[in-house]
């Protein structure tokens, strides 16, 4: 019984210390989210333009479905970072499925180009992309960060350029902006040569030899 009482009081004291240490964090959390509405743009005046700089970091190429023409990618980035000057860097992880025009005419020695397009929802928001300006289009040779990319078994990534398009329509004063990332893929021929071509040739050769022996 004395041992149980000692353990109980030790656990109670640890919980009290933890609760007292979290008071400041709880108060800060409540003050930051008081009267907060995620649908309102984070600007002081409605006339101000919200500037959003967009970066993409590819973690893994999960699948390229030739029949449905869908590319599935795993994009992983860090959590949001809030700076003292009010700048917020938000990088959520996500799995994207994007349409991809697949041409298998030269299978398994083919190369494909898939696109991932991101557009803004509000006209008062400007999407930024660092790069070279060419005829109303910003172009970045290495638009996607591949530093933490896990190589695919079936595909090699050749290039990942990014483009920022800006179009104007008679209906609106502000331009419509989208960021398009092109993922240039090349199928690994060695993978399909070992797993598809060699077995097929071997089976045909065995059948050919069987027919020769059966004929004799």
UniProtKB/TrEMBL annotation:
It comes from the Eukaryota. The keyword Signal applies. The keyword Manganese does not apply. Keywords: Ion channel, Ion transport, Membrane, Signal, Transport. Residues 1-19 form the signal peptide. PANTHER family: NEUROTRANSMITTER GATED ION CHANNEL. This is Neurotransmitter-gated ion-channel ligand-binding domain-containing protein. It comes from Parascaris equorum.
């Amino acid at each position: 019984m004395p041992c149980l009482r000692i353990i109980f009081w030790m656990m109670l004291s640890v919980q009290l210390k933890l609760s007292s240490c979290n008071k400041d964090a709880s108060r800060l959390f409540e003050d930051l989210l008081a009267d907060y509405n995620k649908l309102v743009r984070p600007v002081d005046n409605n006339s101000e333009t919200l500037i959003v700089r967009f970066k993409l970091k590819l973690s893994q190429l999960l699948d390229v479905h030739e029949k449905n023409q869908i590319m599935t990618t795993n994009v992983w980035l860090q959590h949001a970072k809030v700076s003292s000057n009010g700048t917020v860097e938000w990088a959520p992880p996500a799995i994207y499925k994007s349409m991809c025009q697949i041409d298998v005419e030269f299978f398994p020695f083919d190369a494909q180009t898939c696109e991932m397009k991101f557009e803004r929802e509000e006209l008062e928001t400007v999407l930024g992309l660092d790069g070279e300006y060419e005829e109303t289009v910003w172009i970045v040779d290495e638009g996607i960060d591949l530093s933490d990319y896990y190589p695919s078994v079936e595909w090699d990534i050749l290039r990942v350029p990014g483009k920022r398009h800006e179009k104007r329509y008679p209906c609106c004063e502000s331009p419509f902006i989208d960021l398009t990332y092109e993922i240039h893929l090349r199928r690994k021929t060695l993978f399909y040569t070992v797993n598809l071509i060699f077995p097929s040739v071997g089976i045909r050769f065995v059948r050919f030899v069987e027919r020769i022996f059966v004929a004799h």
